[in-house]
């Protein structure tokens, strides 16, 4: 694969390499031409650049597993953005940080090369983390090796990042590459001048070359053309100093020798490697002809794992019994780069993303978590990260909920809302950490799986506005969670009577007026009769739960929380009782700032616990209407559940109808109609919802209004 990044067409260059446009292999980025055409190859006249944001931008290429590849990326800045800001950004190979690309010259390409054993059927090269300028890339190449070339014992855990590949004694500045090297390695000429690279050359260093064939073995390491040139130290030594990119580190370092001079029978060439401060190197003596078993044959001693410094000086020094100075044909130095394990969920995630080949968001490529995560994914920060959160909201997705999601066992949050997902809700029981599930506003159908009720950490479940039907699993209805299931065809658990936790009350204005009128009529007729306390308690408690679950999206945090001491001060330790309802007893209070309040101290048996209470708080803090009493906050301390309202000087509606402390008597039917109308307006604040069982719902919301609607004179 030879990608001309930003290039528009496919072509074959002067040395026979077929270049193709990168457009199909990358998501995002902008192709551009360099403003000034350079003298380099055509592939350097274009590039692709990416936003300098927190995303990563990946090229994903198909490879053959358990095969070694050379991966080469090059970067020629060429002032493409006319800003003369030299970019600096990170390059990664899959999940593994490969290198930081630092541009310090607009006209010289930076080239990064690595040799890696492909462990998966794709290999991705990603750009991210721009610290200056915008990330960009000029070319990306992939070359497949044969046989055991570049095999190392560590290749499953480490890849090799190239630091130096030098063709000594080269003919001119030109590199040797394809077709001389069938694998298209680039053997740089030792006469190419670079800062701090191959300096401190010993006097008496001469270049030699031969046209005779050199036997380089069956694996072409390195190619013959490279071995046909060399340097020799006529004064007895060859000296070099070079900076090794990415070092200090552990290196794979090999030197390549072949005797390419016709020595007289009595002449010998023996030498040792001398590295200052590293006596280890000095031990073996090289006798090229003997070691290679003949002239014009390759001998390649080296170290598969040796620690090298950043500034590397070395010397080949002839031994005392040698008549000729040392020879050096070529050399390669790579750094062992530890392969980052990557996310444990990488395969699942790539399978998930591959379901949406047309969607840009699914084409980000590389590891879902490393070195930076996909834009719609959040991961844990451990060494092999897990996917914690998926946000696929409003992405126009159709079809069923992908089963891959059920395999993300560390998942905490799942957002699939606002798509067109259809079919059933799959079994998420393998995702035991799930806390937040958003499936609302889709076209899901079928029953709610009971497994949802068994998720031990579930906190919030949103399934509203789907086509779900059947009974709500009992385990789910019993959980203390925020649960919104409106806009479906669901019924309460089949085996319980009054826990229609999720069914939402309805309040059509007209219906409410009529029912309220009837209710008022009934109240007026019956208020002198003994009430049936058990019935009222049940009914009054119910709406809070139903409304509460609808509004439970509103965090209780939005409501003010009073300290119990504050309430005790305001009410003079619950001194003045001003009423009682199904929920509890209401006391008069006055806050420190002078505001008059009604404090409802809830009787514990009318509530089933914290959840209902907090649902009520969430509901009341959400509704604001002139016809409803203003909810000021709550207090929950020392086992006391307290709701705080503004004090209604005129009393509650119920008090008006029944006769309260103010002993208001309403006799006029016009007045009653007005009340009914106002009550209906108050009730119309509650979202309407078409229910099949309107009757019971409405009577409950009426009772709610009797408690919470204001009577305004
Ligand atoms: C190389 O040697 C060092 C030090 O002995 C060791 O830590 C490292 O794991 C070895 N392997 C590689 C591939 O670096
Ligand atoms: C959503 O997907 C449909 C095809 O499934 C496509 O026709 C439509 O244009 C998409 N809408 C958006 C806003 O992407």
Would you give an account of this structure?
This protein is α+β, with helices and mostly antiparallel strands and about 725 residues long. The chain contains 11 helices and 42 strands. The chain folds into 4 domains: about 160 residues, Jelly Rolls (Sandwich); about 180 residues, Galactose-binding lectin (Jelly Rolls); about 140 residues, Leucine-rich repeat, LRR (right-handed beta-alpha superhelix), CATH 3.80.10.10; about 150 residues, Phosphorylase Kinase, domain 1, CATH 3.30.200. Strands 1, 2, 3, 7, 10, 13, 14, 15, 20, 23 and 26 form an 11-stranded mixed β-sheet that branches. A hairpin with a 5-residue loop joins strand 39 and strand 40. The radius of gyration is 39 Å and the shape is elongated. One 2-acetamido-2-deoxy-beta-D-glucopyranose binds next to loops. It holds the Pfam family LRR_8. It catalyses: L-threonyl-[protein] + ATP = O-phospho-L-threonyl-[protein] + ADP + H(+); L-seryl-[protein] + ATP = O-phospho-L-seryl-[protein] + ADP + H(+). Keywords: ATP-binding, Glycoprotein, Leucine-rich repeat, Membrane, Nucleotide-binding, Repeat, Signal, Transmembrane, Transmembrane helix.
């Amino acid at each position: 694969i030879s990608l001309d990044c930003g290039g528009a067409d496919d072509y074959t260059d002067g040395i026979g390499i077929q270049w193709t446009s990168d457009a199909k292999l990358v998501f995002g980025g902008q192709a551009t031409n360099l403003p000034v055409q350079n003298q380099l190859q055509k592939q350097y006249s274009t590039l692709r650049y990416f936003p300098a944001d927190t995303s990563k931008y990946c090229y994903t290429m198909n490879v053959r597993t358990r095969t070694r590849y050379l991966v080469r990326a090059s970067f020629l800045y060429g002032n493409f953005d006319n800003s003369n800001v030299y970019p600096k950004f990170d390059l990664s190979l899959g999940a593994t940080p490969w290198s930081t690309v630092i541009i310090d010259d607009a006209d010289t390409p930076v080239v990064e090369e690595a040799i890696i054993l492909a462990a998966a059927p794709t290999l991705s090269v990603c750009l991210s983390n721009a610290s200056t300028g915008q990330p960009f890339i000029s070319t990306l190449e992939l070359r497949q090796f044969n046989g055991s070339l570049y095999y190392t014992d560590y290749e499953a855990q480490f890849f090799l990042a190239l630091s130096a590949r030098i063709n000594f004694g080269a003919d001119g500045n030109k590199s040797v590459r394809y077709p001389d090297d069938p694998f298209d390695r680039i053997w740089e000429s030792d006469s190419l001048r670079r800062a701090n690279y191959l300096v401190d050359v010993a006097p008496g260093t001469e270049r030699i070359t031969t046209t005779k064939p050199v036997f380089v073995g069956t694996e072409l390491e390195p190619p013959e053309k490279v071995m046909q040139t060399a340097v020799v130290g006529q004064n007895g030594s060859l000296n070099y100093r070079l900076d090794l990119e990415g070092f200090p580190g552990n290196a794979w370092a090999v030197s390549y020798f072949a005797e390419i001079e016709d020595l007289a029978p009595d002449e010998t060439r023996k030498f040792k490697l001398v590295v200052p401060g590293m006596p280890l190197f000095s031990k073996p003596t090289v006798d090229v002809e003997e070691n290679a078993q003949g002239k014009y044959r390759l001998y390649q001693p080296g170290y598969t794992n040796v620690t090298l410094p950043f500034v590397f000086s070395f010397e080949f020094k002839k031994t005392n019994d040698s008549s000729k100075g040392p020879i050096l044909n070529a050399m390669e130095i790579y750094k062992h780069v530890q392969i980052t394990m990557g996310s444990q969920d990488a395969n699942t995630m790539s399978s998930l993303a591959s379901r949406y080949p047309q969607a840009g968001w699914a084409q980000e490529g590389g590891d879902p978590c490393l070195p930076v995560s996909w834009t719609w994914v959040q991961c844990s920060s451990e060494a092999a990260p897990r996917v914690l959160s998926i946000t696929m909201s409003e992405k126009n997705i159709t079809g069923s909920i992908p089963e891959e999601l059920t395999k993300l066992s560390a998942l905490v949050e799942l957002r699939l809302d606002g798509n067109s997902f259809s079919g059933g809700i799959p079994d998420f029981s393998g995702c035991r950490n799930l806390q937040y599930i958003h499936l609302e506003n889709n076209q899901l159908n079928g029953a709610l799986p009971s497994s949802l009720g068994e998720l031990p950490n579930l906190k919030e479940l949103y399934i509203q506005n789907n086509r779900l039907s059947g009974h709500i699993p009992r385990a789910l209805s019993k959980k203390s969670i925020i649960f919104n299931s409106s806009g479906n065809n669901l019924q309460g658990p089949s085996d319980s009577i009054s826990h229609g936790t999720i069914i939402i009350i309805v309040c059509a204005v007209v219906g409410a007026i009529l029912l309220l009128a009837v209710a008022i009529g009934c109240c007026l007729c019956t208020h002198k009769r003994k009430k049936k306390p058990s019935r009222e308690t049940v009914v009054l408690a119910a709406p809070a739960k139903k409304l509460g679950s609808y509004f439970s999206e509103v965090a209780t945090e939005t409501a003010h929380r009073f300290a119990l001491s504050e309430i005790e001060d305001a009410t003079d330790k619950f001194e003045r009782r001003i009423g009682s309802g199904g929920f509890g007893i209401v006391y008069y209070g006055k806050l420190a700032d002078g505001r008059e309040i009604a404090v409802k101290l809830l009787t514990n048996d009318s509530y089933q616990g914290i959840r209902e209470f907090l649902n009520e708080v969430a509901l009341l803090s959400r509704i604001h209407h002139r016809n409803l009493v203003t909810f000021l906050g709550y207090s929950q301390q020392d086992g006391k559940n307290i709701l705080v309202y503004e004090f209604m000087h005129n009393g509650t509606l119920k008090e008006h109808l029944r006769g309260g402390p103010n002993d208001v008597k309403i006799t006029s039917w016009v007045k009653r109609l007005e009340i009914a109308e106002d009550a209906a307006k108050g009730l119309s604040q509650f979202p309407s919802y078409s229910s099949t069982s309107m009757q019971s719902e409405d009577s409950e919301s009426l009772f709610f209004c009797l408690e919470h609607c204001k009577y305004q004179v």
